[in-house]
Design goal:
The protein is mostly helical and 400 residues long. It has 15 helices and no strands. It is found in: Cell membrane.
């Protein structure tokens, strides 16, 4: 799994990803606590709406931003996005109204909607070897886990010393570190490729997903991940503060359990995928997500039970998401890879755009009811993916 780190350029890019996501992890904890301070036990609806705005920024802003930055060097795009995110994170400690949270989250995620696809487009060029790229996918999964493991643990420690809104300062520091690290490397020459026709690329990519038998299940699996993940990310603060009556630090630690499971899966997956197909791993992860979400209503009054379930959600989440990149890379011709990745980016975020507000708004009716509805959605997605995935598991590319 560590072989990609032998490449100096990737090593610094990975470090940039780690520090930025660590800062984002602090912001995730701080945002949930801020929502609880502003709305009490209705924090789930506030946080669900804020996270839906995050997805809306990705869906709406990414095509526009892609056109704006299409002629710019990728390094300038990445650094500029980090600087904008730094500025917004610095403003978040001073908000006092819910609408201010929504505005700043939109701007922050608009910058991320520019940064993330650009960053992802660089990695295959930096690491052309498939094994190196597979290693990078697992390392990337580990980096995202820092957002939900080490960052919440760090947040819990910091909350012993500082108020929760000061956690946003850590977010700003993370983005500053990312900008400095990106600025320290030489990236492959060229502007942001393909992106000025982003909408066309998404449409072409979506058609590829529909036409390619081995990729059709990914569409349904995106919904499974979004259904299970949305409940965890939106309602953890309400469960811990409202249902269990525990403190801010416990919110951070329970969120960390999600990443513990995901990190464990990311460590195991490179070896597992040498012996098991993507189909078996990804569908197994989907089944785990659906059954775990269905078990949430009976665990709401036990901190230990909730923590265990969050670990299992992390395991299933990583098992579904981590192999997608290698599956796309193998099944799609090289010239169509930008279209396929653009489609996966937009379609997966569209699923979160639905499930985030659903998790928040249903939670105002009842946390158990919200979990049941999202479990039904996850189960439907799992069944659909199972029916769509061909057997035998490996089929020729682009065969209908």
């Amino acid at each position: 799994m560590l072989r990609a780190l032998a490449h100096p350029v990737y090593r610094r890019l990975f470090a940039a990803q780690v520090v930025a996501l660590a800062g984002t992890g602090l912001a995730t904890v701080a945002l949930g606590l801020l929502a609880y301070d502003l709305a009490g036990e209705d924090a789930g609806s506030v946080l669900g709406t804020a996270l839906a705005i995050k997805m809306l920024a990705y869906v709406l802003v990414a095509p526009v931003a892609a056109v704006v930055v299409a002629r710019l060097p990728r390094k300038a795009v990445l650094i500029g996005s980090d600087v904008l995110r730094l500025l917004v994170a610095s403003m978040l400690p001073f908000v006092g109204e819910v609408w201010q949270v929504f505005v700043l989250i939109f701007v922050l995620q608009a910058a991320s909607a520019t940064f993330t696809p650009t960053f992802q487009s660089v990695i295959p060029q930096v690491l052309p070897d498939e094994d190196d790229y597979t290693s990078a996918l697992s390392l990337s999964r580990l980096a995202y886990d820092l957002e939900s493991v080490l960052a919440p643990v760090l947040a819990a420690a910091l909350l012993l010393l500082i108020p929760s809104d000061a956690l946003f300062v850590g977010t700003a520091i993370g983005f500053a570190g990312s900008a400095l690290l990106v600025g320290s490397v030489v990236l492959p020459r060229g502007a942001v490729q393909v992106q000025e026709r982003f909408v066309v690329e998404v449409q072409r990519g979506a058609a590829l997903f529909v036409r390619t038998r081995a990729l059709r299940p990914v569409l349904a699996l995106n919904l499974v991940v979004a259904a299970a993940g949305a409940f965890v990310l939106v309602q953890t603060v309400v469960i811990v503060r409202g249902e269990l009556g525990l403190g801010e630090g416990v919110v951070a630690l329970v969120l960390a359990a999600l990443g513990v499971g995901s990190m464990a899966a990311a460590v195991a997956l490179p070896r597992l995928l040498r012996h098991a197909s993507e189909r078996r791993v990804m569908l197994g992860g989907a089944v785990l997500l659906a059954t775990t979400t269905a078990a949430i209503p009976v665990a709401l009054h036990s901190l230990a039970a909730v923590t265990v379930l969050w670990v299992l959600v992390g395991l299933g989440w990583a098992a579904v998401e981590t192999p997608v990149g290698r599956l796309v890379r193998r099944e799609v011709p090289t010239e169509d890879l930008p279209s396929a990745f653009a489609a996966q980016f937009s379609l997966s975020h569209a699923c979160w755009l639905v499930t985030y507000p659903l998790a928040g708004w249903l939670g105002t009716v009842g946390l158990g009811a919200a979990a049941v509805v999202l479990a039904v959605i996850a189960t439907a997605g799992t069944i659909t993916a199972t029916l769509l995935w061909p057997s035998p598991e490996r089929v020729p590319s682009l065969r209908s």
